[in-house]
Amino acid sequence: QSALTQPASVSGSPGQSITISCTGTSSDVGNYDLVSWYQEYPGKAPKLIIYEVFQRPSGVSTRFSGSKSGNTASLTISGLQAGDEADYYCSSYAGTRTIIFGGGTKLTVL
Amino acid sequence: EVQLVESGGGLVQPGGSLRLSCSASGFTFNDYAMHWVRQAPGKGLEYVSTISSTEGYTYYADSVKGRSTISRDNSKNTLYLQMSSLRPDDTAVYYCVKSQYSSSWSLAHWGQGVLVSVSS
User: Fold this and answer.
1) pLDDT digits (tens, 9 = 90+) for B47-78
2) Phi, psi (deg, nearest 5) at residue A82
3) Start-end of H helices in chain B
4) Are the Cβ atoms of B59 and A47 closer than 8 angstroms?
């Protein structure tokens, strides 16, 4: 299976909103509401910020939101802050009792 | 507080073997599926393997299938990954990960990771 497709990089200014896309196929993203998003800072372990397309774990800011349309899931970060600068990864249940990840997106806050 | 502490990494020659361990605390270990995810230096996340909570069902990425065995000892709250026939492209930080729910495919809690380097 190929990795889910994410843009390599996105950028935005403080206070703005940005959206990161995550495109899969009808066998993974399109077939299951089991998309997750992870935030990773350099040298740190990833952190779950969205699960099951749009659910937020306890303690995650409401500025992070998720959605899905067809084979593409999206992560939106509103009110961008300097501390949001990180790598973001999507994942999906792949339908074969495995998980597939996106290639990751580097978010730069200008 | 959920804690996952990996150990057992290090430098191994191509073709060698290694067993990673993950000591879990802060939750009822045998209620949750557990996973291994790896990240090669400067690269993205890659799924490795999953083991179910009590039945012990196991699943593997194609890249490690036949060369790796995931297991757990619920009496010791410990997860394992036995890797053999290691190749240079197995070089990565390996993370032990707890599911969001008992059988979830969302990866809720991550260990700090352990580095496995495969090189001669």
Assistant:
1) 999 999 988 899 999 999 999 999 999 999 99
2) -60, -35
3) none
4) no
